[in-house]
Design brief:
By secondary structure, this protein is mainly β. 0% of the residues lie in helices and 73% in strands. It has strands at 5-13, 17-26, 29-36, 42-50, 53-59, 64-71, 74-81, 84-93. Strand 3 and strand 4 form a beta hairpin. 19% of the residues are buried.
Length: 95
Amino acid sequence: MDLSGRWTGRYSGAYSGTFNLSWQQSGSSLRGRITLSSAGGTERLNGTVKGTKITFGTVGSAAITYSGTVSGNSMSGAYQVGGASGGNWSATKSS
């Protein structure tokens, strides 16, 4: 399963809004960028995918981590902000 490409999604909970992801996958490693509607600006991401499990997080000052599962062109899970529970997220591949 190749996750490279563009993804669009929603997040809810402590923060709510939409986001756009752009991934490059190499083996089980992910690198990319995320743009959150509520925060503005773009943050770099690093992550891993193993089977159907995905984890990724921002690279920089805002410690936001995401974990979940991938199935085909969709993925979903939970996010944390600074180690505290944030809420849920979901995304679909757009290209």
